[in-house]
Amino acid sequence: MSRTFDNRITFQKLEILCLVVDLGGVTRAAEHLWVAQPVVTAHIRSLQERLGVTLFHREGRRTILTDAGQQVYQWAQDVLSRTEQMQREIDGLADGSGGPVAIAASMSLGSYLLPPILSDFRERYPGVEITLIVEDPEGAVTSVERGESDLAFIVAPSPPQNPALECRQVGDDDLVLVAAPDFRPGLEEMSVSELADMPLVSTPRSHLRREMVDRQLSAHGVRTSNIIIELGHPEAMKHATQAGLGACLLFRAAVEQELRDRRLVEIALTDASMTVPVYLVSRLTKALTPAQTAIVEAVCQHFALAAPAPPPAPPPAPAPAPAPAGD
Questions:
Q1: Residue 275 DSSP SS3
Q2: Distance (Å, rounded) from C-alpha 69 to C-alpha 28?
Q3: Rounded CA separation 158/1 (Å)
Q4: How far apart are CA 194 and CA 226, in angstroms?
Q5: How many other β-carbons are positioned within 10 Å of the β-carbon of residue 5?
Q6: Cα(255)–Cα(264) distance, rounded to whole angstroms?
Q7: Tens-digit pLDDT profile for residues 230-272
Q8: How many CB atoms lie within 10 A of CB 175?
C-alpha cells in the first residue's frame, strides 16, 4: 500500500541534502551555510522522517548515501535544477529576454527578410526560443488561427478577413523588375507599358504571388503576354532570370543580395511604383509576451529604416521687403 507524499518537504531541506552530499559531510555543509552543525543534522533528520527512509549510513569516518538516499538525492537534484530553470524562464518571459516565439511567414519574408532579423535578435537574447515556419500566406494565417504560431508576417494584397484575428500593416515590400546583367545591356529603365511584351519569368497562375503581380500590372493598364516560364519558388525564378531567360518581377527582399553582388540588375520603371503591404497577424485573444512584442518591434524598425526619407520641406518664402519710408 503506497503512502501519501508528505507535502511539508521544503526546497530548503532538499538544498541542504544536496549540499551535504556534494560537499562531503554535515560539517562542511554547515560551514558553507554559516549555521551550527546541529541545524543541518536536524534538517536531514526531519527529511528522513517525512520520507520514511534512512538517507545515510556510516562507513568508518565517512557518511555514505543509502540506496534510498541515492534515489532521494537524484530526485532533489532534479527538482532543484528544474526549479531554477523555471525561474529563469519566468524571468525571461517577464523582461523579454526569454521564452518561446513561434512565427509563420510567407515565402519572401520567411526566406529572406526575417532570418537576419531573427538571428540578430537571438544573438542578443539567447534565452528566446525562436521557431520560423515558411509557407504560403493562407497557410501562415491558418497556423496563427489554430494556435500553432504566435504571430505571422505575410505579404498580401489585403488583410485576411477573420473575426478571430487581428491584422495590421507593418510595412511594404517593393516589387522590382530584375534581369541578368547581360540580358539587355544598357537597359537601365523603361516604362511600365513596355512590360506587356517583355519576356518574363513568372509564378504559376494558381499562386497568390502571381495574383498580386497581375493586380499591380493591371492597375497600370498592363497585361503581360510573353511569359517564358512559370516557377513556384523565388530561388527557381532567380536562377532562370540569371540564366537570361527573361526579366522578372520579384519582391525586393528576395533579390537584395543578388543586386548587391551584381548577379542581377534592377531595371527601373520610370512611370510606376509597385508595392504590396506586409501584415502582422495575431489572435485577438492572445496577449503577446515581451519577447514576441520585441520581435514585432524589430521587424517594424526594419521597415521604418527601409522606407525612403520624406522630401525636404521647401525653404520658407522670403519676407516681403519693407515699404520705403515716406518723406
A1: strand
A2: 19
A3: 65
A4: 11
A5: 9
A6: 8
A7: 998 999 999 999 999 999 999 998 999 999 999 999 999 999 8
A8: 21
Instruction: Name the DSSP letter for residue 69.
Output: H
Burial (CB < 10 A; 0-12, 13-18, 19+), residue 174, is: middle
Q: Delimit the domains of the chain by residue range.
A: 11-93, 96-172+276-306, 173-275
Question: How many helices (H) and strands (E) would you count in the chain?
Answer: 11, 13
Q: How far apart are CA 191 and CA 214, in angstroms?
A: 16
In this chain, the answer to whether the domains covering 11-93 and 96-172+276-306 adopt an identical fold is: no
Residue numbers in the chain where pLDDT is lower than 70: 1-3, 85-98, 306-327
Q: At what angle do helices 67-95 and 11-23 cross, to 10 degrees?
A: 120
Q: What is the DSSP letter of 284?
A: T
**Residue 37 cell numbers, joined:** 552543525
**How far apart are alpha carbons 190 and 266 in whole angstroms?**
11
CATH 2.40.50.140 for domain 96-172+276-306? no
Q: Can you give the C-alpha Rg of the chain in angstroms?
A: 33
Q: Which CATH class is domain 173-275?
A: alpha beta
Q: For residue 173, give the H/E element and its range.
A: strand 165-179
Residue 241 contacts residue 179 (beta carbons within 8 Å): yes
Instruction: Please write down the HEC assignment for all residues of 200-249.
Output: EEECCCCCHHHHHHHHHHHHCCCCCCCEEEECCCHHHHHHHHHCCCCEEE
Grid coordinates given for 204: 504559376
Architecture of domain 11-93: Orthogonal Bundle (1.10)
How far is residue 200 from each of residues 112, 190, 215, measured CA to CA in Å?
A: 22, 14, 16
User: Is residue 99 classed as helix, strand or coil in its secondary structure?
Assistant: strand
pTM over 0.70: no
Quote the pLDDT of residue 272.
87
Grid cell of 45 as nine digits: 533528520
